[in-house]
Amino acid sequence: MQRLRLATIVAEEPEIFHSLQGEGISLGRPSVFVRLSGCNLACHWCDTPYTWFFDGHPGAHRGDRQYERRSNSVTLDVGDIAARIRAFDCHHIVFTGGEPLLQQPALAGLCALLGPDYHIEIESNGTVALTPGFASHVDQLNLSPKLGHSGNTDTARLNRDALAIHARDPRAWFKFVIADPDDAEEVAALAERFAIAAERIILMPEGTTPADLRARSAWLAPLCLDRGWRFTDRLHIHLYGDTRGT
């Protein structure tokens, strides 16, 4: 039986929950979230460091606290995960992380068990291409390529081959985390390089408190209007705060 490594809400309890999508093109849509553990990047402002910033990790995170791997991740059979998903009676699924595309073979097995009635949405950092075995299960790609302010090296955060493939995929949307108005120039350069249409670009303010989001939204919203890009808030932060399982 195939197995997936998931993040936890508390020790031994996988982070599988029913909520409103808080970001991007599906904002406000009721969804079942499945948060996977593990990531190939180390964004210093990441709001889910418990999925990757484990004891001994060589990277950096502004929260400084490192997490014990055993109590912050759990491995489950895909059959168990499918049963937990079905219990919510919601057919819109969001696989998030961490970086879920690091576990595509088991994700393909899980989706095969769920069947075609489920709409599968992926949240990814854009550095990993879809595999042939999983691609047919995916309905929507929410890609968030990381900019220079993430703290990752250019080589780590931008897989140009993967980005080129994603840019040609009509299922893909490109959501960029914005901390400073100057970040828009980096987004524009990527859009030009990979021929990403303005209507597929979404800018989101960086922040884990309503106050921070409001402050950045004040200048980010008009910037989006000027550039012809979409804007997204972080609805879950306003509704629930920066907490697991929401």
Automatic annotation (TrEMBL):
EC number(s): the record gives 4.3.99.3
Gene3D superfamilies, alphabetically? Aldolase class I
Residues annotated for substrate binding in this entry = L20, Q21, G22, R35, T96
Q: Enumerate the residues binding S-adenosyl-L-methionine.
A: W45, C46, D47, G98, S144, P145, K146
State the CDD domains in the record.
Radical_SAM
Q: Which residues bind [4Fe-4S] cluster?
A: C39, C43, C46
**What top-level branch of life does the organism fall under?**
Bacteria
Q: Where does the Radical SAM core domain start and stop, copy by copy?
A: 26-242
- List, in alphabetical order, the Gene Ontology terms for molecular function in this entry: 4 iron, 4 sulfur cluster binding; carbon-nitrogen lyase activity; magnesium ion binding; S-adenosyl-L-methionine binding
Which keywords fit this entry according to its UniProt record?
4Fe-4S, Iron, Iron-sulfur, Lyase, Magnesium, Metal-binding, Queuosine biosynthesis, S-adenosyl-L-methionine
* Keyword Magnesium attributed: yes
Pathway where this protein functions: Purine metabolism; 7-cyano-7-deazaguanine biosynthesis
As cofactor, the record names: S-adenosyl-L-methionine; [4Fe-4S] cluster; Mg(2+)
EC class of the enzyme, as a word: lyase
In terms of PROSITE patterns, this protein maps to: RADICAL_SAM (PS51918)
Q: Name one Pfam family in it.
A: Radical_SAM
- Respond yes or no to whether keyword Iron-sulfur is given for this record: yes
Q: Where are the transmembrane segments?
A: none
> Can you tell me which residues bind Mg(2+)?
T48
**Cofactor, how bound (note):** Binds 1 S-adenosyl-L-methionine per subunit. Binds 1 [4Fe-4S] cluster. The cluster is coordinated with 3 cysteines and an exchangeable S-adenosyl-L-methionine.
- Subunit (UniProt): Homodimer.
Q: Which family does it belong to?
A: Belongs to the radical SAM superfamily. 7-carboxy-7-deazaguanine synthase family.
Annotated function: Catalyzes the complex heterocyclic radical-mediated conversion of 6-carboxy-5,6,7,8-tetrahydropterin (CPH4) to 7-carboxy-7-deazaguanine (CDG), a step common to the biosynthetic pathways of all 7-deazapurine-containing compounds.
The name this protein carries in UniProt is: 7-carboxy-7-deazaguanine synthase
